[in-house]
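Q: Can I see a sequence and its folded structure?
A: Here is a first one.
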Amino acid sequence: MYENTYPDKRFRLTLAFLKKHTSGNEKILDLGVENPFSKIMKKEGFEVANTTGEDLDNDQSALKNNDYDVLTAFEIFEHFLNPYTVLQNVKSDKLFISIPMRLWFSPAYRSKTDPWDRHYHEFEDWQLDWLLEKTGWKIIDRQKWTNPVKKLGIRPLLRRFTNRYYIVYAEKIKNA
C-alpha cells in the first residue's frame, strides 16, 4: 500500500486525499514543472501533465489550452503574486490546492540563493477559503496536518502541534 511507499508524510496524506476525491480516470493538469509529487501521481496511475515553467502570474494560457478534468496546485499558490487570476482561468470543475500555512513563529520563506524560490503568500486557512469563494469555487473537503522535524528547539517543538499544511478539494460553482 502507498502509505509505506512514500515516507514523506505530506506526500502520503496528499495522495490519500486525491484518491478520496477522484476516480483515477480523470486527466490532471498539475501546476508547476514535473516534481516529486507529480511523479508519484503518475506512478499511482494518474494521467498527469505539468505546466512548463511559464510565469503563471502573467501567462495562464496553459490553463486555457490544455485538456484536463482536474487541476492540482500542490504547494505552488504561495509563490504567486496573483492567485486570483489563476483561479479565474481554471477550465476544470475540480480543483485541489495544498499550501504551507503561515506560522506565527516563523517568517515567510525566502531562498538566499534562488530569486524565484520564495513565498509571496503564506495563507491562513480562512484566506485561501475566501480566495476560492471569491473566484467561484465551493470547498467540498479540507484537511490540515503538522510537519514535525527531527531537531531540538522551540520551533521544532511548536511544529509538532501546529498545523503547517492545508489541502482543499473544491468544485466550481455553476454560473459563478
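Q: Show me another, different protein.
A: A second, unrelated one:
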Amino acid sequence: MENFVQPKPCTILNVKRESEHEWTFRVASEAKPDHGQFMQLSIPKIGEAPISVSAQGDGWLEFTIRSVGRVTNCIFSKEKGDTLFLRGPYGKGWPSEEFRGKHLVVITGGTGLAPVRSLLHKCAGEKDFVKDVHLISGFKDEAGIVFHRELKEWKEKFHTVYALDNDEKEGWRTGMVTAFVKEIPFGSFGDDYAVVVVGPPPMMKFTGLELLNCGADPEKIWMSFERKMSCAIGKCGHCRIDEVYVCLDGPVFPYTTARDLVD
C-alpha cells in the first residue's frame, strides 16, 4: 500500500521569475490534483511547506512561491535539475463541476491569483466549460504583478479588470478590488453563476461583504484559506479554527462557512 504521507523526490524542470519575491517552479510529478488543492513541498533537514498548485500538465506540476521563510528561501536556491520532495495532493479544491455551464466570477488579490490559475487555464482552454468569466485581479503595485503572459491572454478571452492599489499603469485601474465589484452584472446572471475569491484575509472579508451589497447570493461564493497549514493531515492542529481544520476541511470553503472562520 502506498504511503500517502511519504514525500517523493521530484526533479525541477524549470524555474521562472514572476516578480521580485515570487518564482514559479515546474516540477516533474504524476500527481493529479483537483484545481485548488495543495501539495507539501519539502527539503530534507530544512522542513516543508504547503503550496497550492498553480498549474498542471502531463507529468508536471507548477508551484508559484513567495520567499517568506526558511523553507521557501531554500527552495529559491534550487535550480533546474535539482530535486524537491513532494507529497499530496491534499485538501478540498474548487467544486469545478458545480461551475460548469455557469457565469464564473473570479476576484483575486496579489498571489491569490495562483490558487485559481489552473482553474482559469481550464476555463480558457475548454470553450464550453463556463458561459463566461469575469476576472478582477488586483496587486499592491506594479512590481508585484505575476503571470504577465496569462494576464494578457485572459484579457482577450475574459471580462477583466486589472488593478493596482495605488500605482498607475496604462491599461490598469487604480484602487482596491472591492471598488470594482459593483461592475459585475449580477442582475443579468439570474441564478446561473458562481463566485471565487482568493487573497489576503482582509481582502477576502471586505470583498465578501461588497459582493453581498451588490446582490450576490452567499451560497454561490467560494473562498480559499491557507491559514497556518503545516502537516496537511489534521494532526498538528496549527490550522485549526474552532472545530475546523483548514488543511482537511479546506482550503476551499463556501462563503457561508468561510465568513465565520475568525481566530
